[in-house]
Amino acid sequence: xxxxxxxxxxxxxxxxxxxxxxxxxxxxxxxxxxxxxxxxxxxxxxxxxxxxxxxxxxxxxxxxxxxxxxxxxxxxxxxxxxxxxxxxxxxxxxxxxxxxxxxxxxxxxxxxxxxxxxxxxxxxxxxxxxxxxxxxxxxxxxxxxxxxxxxxxxxxxxxxxxxxxxxxxxxxxxxxxxxxxxxxxxxxxxxxxxxxxxxxxxxxxxxxxxxxxxxxxxxxxxxxxxxxxxxxxxxxxxxxxxxxxxxxxxxxxxxxxxxxxxxxxxxxxxxxxxxxxxxxxxxxxxxxxxxxxxxxxxxxxxxxxxxxxxxxxxxxxxxxxxxxxxxxxxxxxxxxxxxxxxxxxxxxxxx
Length: 351
Hints:
Blueprint: E1 5-11, H1 17-20, E2 29-33, E3 39-44, E4 47-53, H2 59-69, E5 73-78, H3 89-107, E6 114-116, H4 125-138, E7 143-146, E8 148-149, E9 152-153, H5 157-169, E10 173-176, H6 191-210, H7 213-216, E11 223-225, H8 232-245, E12 265-267, H9 273-283, E13 288-289, H10 305-308, H11 315-330
Parallel strand pairs: 1-5, 5-6, 7-10, 10-11, 11-12, 12-13
Antiparallel strand pairs: 2-3, 3-4, 8-9
Helix pairs in contact: 3-4, 4-5
C-alpha cells in the first residue's frame, strides 16, 4: 500500500479570549466555538476573522477525516493569523511556545499519524532560532514561517540568518503566504487569496533567488513553499528571460533563476491536472509533496485525488508525491505499525 502523507494542513487550538489577550489585548486571535460544538469562528479581538469547523481543533475529528480519505500521516501547522509577528518579540515568543506545546498535545492523540510544524517569533531572529531548536527537540518536525514580516521579505539579513540556522540544525521549513498585499482594489470574491496569495509565494521564492540569498544559505536547507509555489512555476520562463536580457535582474543572482529549483520543494495544492503536470515538469518529481490545506474550503476536499487519479503520472511518480517525498523531507515513519481502517475512497491508488 502506498504511504499517503498530507504535509500541509492547519490547526487552531481552543484558545480563549483571555489567553489571546496575553499576546494582544485588542486583536489577539482566539476561538469562539458555537453551542453545537461543531462550528465556530476564529476571532481577532471582537472581530470575526473566519468561520471554521471542529476539525481545526479536535484531533479525533481530524483522524476520522484522515481514515475516510485514506491518509496515513498529516502534518499540522498554525493558521497564519496565529503568527503574532506584529507584537514585541518576547510576547510573541511566549505565545509561540504555548501554541507549539498545544500542537504537540493535539498530536498526542495519534503520535505516529499526527505531527506538527512549530511557529516562531520571526520578528526577532535570535528568539526565532532558539524556539525553532527547542520545538524541534520537543518533537516538532520542522517550522512554518510566513513569507514576510511587514516590509521585510525572505532576503532580509535576519531571515537569511534564521534559514542558515535551520540548515545547520536540520530543521525543515515550510513557507506559507500570509498578510497578502492589497491596496484596497481586491475587496470581494476572496481576491486577496486568489490573486495576492500566489503572488506572495512567488515573491518569497524570487527574493531568495534574485538576491543571491541561496548562494549564502547552505544547500542542506530543507525548505518548501506552500500552494504549489504560487505563481512561480507558471512564470519561471518570464523570470529567466528577464535575467538573460536585463542586467538589473541578474545584478545579485549569478546563475539562471531556473537553476535554483533544486534548492526547494513545493506542495501539490494546484487543483488541476495540467497545472500539476507543469509543476512536476518545473520542479522535478522529487520536490513536490501532497499538501491539502485541510480543513479550509480553499483546500483539496478529497485529499490526494488530484495525484491519485492523474492519468499522466506514473506509479512511481504517484508514490513519491503521495508520501515518499514528504517522509524523507520531514523524517517521518514509514507505514509500518500504522493502525487505521483501510477504506477505498475515490482517488486511492493501488500499489
